[in-house]
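Sharing a chain and its predicted structure for anyone who wants a worked example. Both blocks are below, sequence first, tokens second.
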Amino acid sequence: MPYSELMIRPMREELTSAGVQELRTAQDVDAFLAEKSGTAMLVVNSVCGCAAGMARPGIRHALAHGKRPDRVGTVFAGQDLEATARARSYFQDIPPSSPSIAFLKDGELVYFMPRHRIEGRNAEAVAGDLMAVFEEHCAVTAAS
């Protein structure tokens, strides 16, 4: 049974207020990942403490960096059930993990941060890892 939308709304808004696109259906995920050019980051959001204390704040910090992905989308594990399953189907060689962050360049997965690389760290460390990926793969400059 999915989590209550009322309960998770603030967790969704923490990312959408930073410009992250919600992908609520399997079709949304397919459309997001159909674009093969440029860079894309796909976040599997979650209600857990490591999503709240490390992942979402780290993502927000990294997205304010000088370079950022062309597109950033998110599904919510435990709420957007079909969308989350579809997102994970694109990375079948990687065990399901939430929260997690996938980074693609020209349609190819070039970086994946599973839960075990998020929990037990702080938001700055998560942001640092993401900013290093952005520096290596992105050309788009964040708005000041």
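Comments welcome. The beta strands are 21-22, 39-45, 67-68, 71-76, 100-105, 108-113, 140-141.
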